[in-house]
Amino acid sequence: MNRFSLRNLLFLTLCCDLGLFTKRLIAPAANILTDFLRIPGGIGTSFSLMFLVVAAELVPIFGCATLMGIVQSIIALSLGMVGSMGILSPIGYIVPGIVIDLIFLLSRKTGLGTDLTLTISNMLGAAAASLTANFIVFRLPGVPLALYIVVALASGAVCGSFAGVLVKRLRPVFSGSSASCFEERNISAINHAPRN
Prior knowledge:
The chain is an all-alpha fold. The protein has helices at 6-37, 43-58, 64-79, 89-110, 114-138, 142-191.
């Protein structure tokens, strides 16, 4: 935890909450499409993961997406928002977080562009969530499972693109507040420096 500043922790907490509760807001609209396709979901999860992806980009510390998944699972359990996975729902939050962290780690080692990283991490995070839910609960056969994963990948790509827009809007604010904190620390250090 020492690697995270208070500002970063507050931002991660905000993204956790937004991811968890906005999923509930868009679920009714998303369910219209998924019910028509006769699959369990996938769209709401992609939208929820968008906030983890944004946070992982703006707080470039390995493990932050996994940490957010753990926090989301604790909040979901405490509020009874467990869905069809029941007591095993934390797995559905933590596995996508791990996948997102691994994609960002790979991206930083290989130099993938920001937009591509955001899109791929959102896509694969959503697919991982769908596969986890299918393994634990749904047990869909071939064609419905393939459709379920395709919807998760497609909605993940769209939400990953939205994540790129959010990052572009938030990065100047994030960088500006970092610079302000740095300047405040320097001023404080100068003021407390011994005078000859």
